[in-house]
Queue: 2 jobs
Job 1
Amino acid sequence: MKIIMLGAPGAGKGTQAKMISEKYGLPHVSTGDIFRANIKNGTELGKEAKKYMDAGQLVPDELTVKILLDRVAQDDCKNGYVLDGFPRTIPQAEVLDKALTELGDKVDYAINVDVPDENIINRMSGRRACVTCGATYHVVYAPTKVEGICDKCGSELILRDDDKPETVKNRLEVYHKQTQPLIEYYDKKGVLKEVDGTVDMNEVFNSIVSILA
Ligand code: AP5
Ligand code: MG
């Protein structure tokens, strides 16, 4: 099963992708997480990506596409995956489609987690992220057992550099301009599913499970 998570920054793509990954045994592939791991490790890719991420802009397609195609070509992705944060532009979606078509394959579901802009800024300021395992928490809506420490792997949590309110505003603008058109793109392909992302995260997950069942 090949699933794409669509939605604005902070809609809960990562939160839901992680839950899907655990329930269905599919790898959770997040381009944002891959970039953050590279930044943490000080790689050339990380240095390049950070310039764009800190400004709330998209990393250029040439860089992003290669990383994603390499990742999904790995053995653990043979039976499917959950893509979180990719594709984010029409050209990225076209490259993915082409690569899948060459393998006689296709995207099964594009799930749009719908959350209006008003709710987003509030969510971002309380978010805490684990760069080691990709888990996401919120100080109010999804707190950890021990403050600042990941429940799943015990690593220290970070506040993302791009979660400052001004940067979040840029990210939302970029989302509306460059990423939102993907909703129509996948609707035309007949694989789009919409869920209300404003309700409790377990309720959001229940809606997704009923789609995938
Ligand atoms: P990325 O890491 O993908 O960030 P994003 O799309 O901006 O999305 P977020 O991770 O901020 O939000 P999310 O939807 O995953 O929400 P979450 O589950 O954390 O990308 C970062 C940057 O990398 C981009 O800006 C770009 O520069 C670059 N990049 C990445 N991919 C790229 C690509 N393909 N092309 C080009 N550039 C790329 O939830 C948010 C918070 O809300 C959390 O605290 C969570 O606990 C809480 N929450 C979740 N659900 C609920 C709920 N139902 N109720 C209450 N709180 C909730
Ligand atoms: Mg995320």
Job 2
Amino acid sequence: MKKLIITIDGPAASGKEKIAKYIAKKWKLNHLDSGILYRRLALIFSIEKIDIENVNKIKNKLKNIHQISFRNSKNIRTQVISRLASKIAVHDCVRNYVNKLQYNFVNKNKKIQGFVIDGRDIGSVVFKNADLKLYIDVNPEIRAKRRYKQLIDSGEKSIYPKILKDIKLRDKQDKLRKHSPLVIPKGAHMVDNSGSFTDTIKQIKVLLDKI
Ligand code: C5P
């Protein structure tokens, strides 16, 4: 049986994860947050003090990582790891490694009827032939306000102008990198997530009903 694939791309803090979780629960699909995989690698590189500018050192390390957790956790959600994840994501070898993990995850789960996968290159590179592609759009100021609140609520110290600067920097890194930059994937539907979550879901339901 062909598995249903829904891709969700968009910039940092645009609400992809919340939307993906909602869709997964409502339509009984598995959710895969590809950002977690970049964050997990960033954490490993940071703990092991791997020089992230040195591609050979990265390649050697990747050869020795045989398992990686797909679980979210507080220690991969810090600002430091966010920045580092975005920096390591420019390397082709890192992207190939993460993409392989994603293909294995989808292929090994034979009984699952479908997947919602979110990230930066999911509809444009990883699952180009997805059944539905969404691109989430929110301006940087609204995203920074939401991220600021999230960090404060989780107990991390945070300064709004710094968050906004970080978000703009990550946007720049993600959009301008050579390999798999963040773009609106061909055939993707734009979803405006600047308003209430109810408004966003209304836009998405219309699209899902058409699959
Ligand atoms: O989505 P999240 O903010 O957790 O992703 C962390 C970083 O990982 C992003 O800033 C981006 O640079 C990178 N990433 C990516 N491609 C993906 C998912 C995440 O380049 N599919």
